[in-house]
Design a protein that fits this description.
mainly alpha; two-stranded antiparallel ribbon
Length: about 100
C-alpha cells in the first residue's frame, strides 16, 4: 500500500489531470451502455445536462465506490508508467507534470 502511495505521490499533477478524463469518459461509456444510445447521439449542451449526462441519471453509493476503486487501480498503472517515463527522461516540462 505504501509503495502505491509513493508512486502516485511522485506524479500528483498527472494523477489530478488524468482522473478528470478517466471519470468523464467512463461515465459517458456507462451512460451509453445503460441507455442503449451511441456516443454520437449524446447531447453535450450544458442546458441538457453536465458533460452529456442528463440530470437525474445516477447510481447508488455502492456503484460509485466501485467506480472509484476501478479508477484508482487504472490510474495507479498510468502513474507507475509515467513515473518510470519521467525518471528516465530529462525534458524540462516533465518537472511540472
Amino acid at each position: 500500500m505504501g509503495k502505491a502511495l509513493v508512486v502516485m505521490g511522485r506524479v500528483p499533477l498527472f494523477y489530478y489531470l488524468m482522473h478528470f478524463y478517466l471519470i468523464h469518459v467512463s461515465a459517458l461509456a456507462v451512460y451509453a451502455m445503460l441507455t442503449g444510445i451511441s456516443l454520437a447521439e449524446i447531447d453535450f449542451h450544458f442546458a441538457k445536462g453536465f458533460g452529456g449526462i442528463p440530470n437525474g441519471f445516477g447510481h447508488s453509493l455502492f456503484w460509485v465506490y466501485g467506480a472509484w476503486l476501478a479508477c484508482v487501480l487504472v490510474l495507479y498503472r498510468l502513474c507507475k508508467w509515467y513515473n518510470r517515463y519521467k525518471s528516465t527522461r530529462s525534458h524540462w516540462w516533465l518537472s511540472y507534470l
